[in-house]
Amino acid sequence: MSRAGHCDLHVHSTCSDGTVPPAEVARRAKAAALDAVALTDHDTFAGIAEALDAGARLGMRVVPGIELSLPHAGTFHMIGLGVDPADARLRAVADLLCDGRGPRNLA
Do 13 and 27 contact (CB within 8 A), yes or no? Predict the structure, then answer.
């Protein structure tokens, strides 16, 4: 009998407000015996390549993701999983939101 997959599909790294670098996210997921981990930093794909590389070395499935901080009656957070960090439209939205994080964080 196969067991259900264990994963964490909402993890941040030091590329946004997490506490460890993207490669360490993959290493800790492997150490925790997870089957997969999704790196979903706020409004950036900056750590995806590092996390994917580390995951490949470790035999850990890393799902590229993002958490978009959308302005809607305050801030609405939307998680994207299995996204393509090279998609120009998605990258433009992420860049726009990331550029707005500084002023939002001061309020």
Answer: no
pLDDT in tens, 44-88: 999 999 999 999 999 999 999 999 988 877 778 999 999 999 999
Q: Tell me, what DSSP letter sits at residue 96? A: H
pTM, full prediction:
0.86
Backbone angles phi, psi at 54, to 5 degrees: -65, -45
* Segment 2-45, tens digit of pLDDT: 456 899 999 999 999 999 999 999 999 999 999 999 999 999 99
Q: Which two tokens stand for residue 28?
A: 């800790």
Token code pair at residue 83? 């996204």
| 72: DSSP letter | S
Which among 58, 71, 61 is positioned nearest to 100, based on CA atoms?
Answer: 71
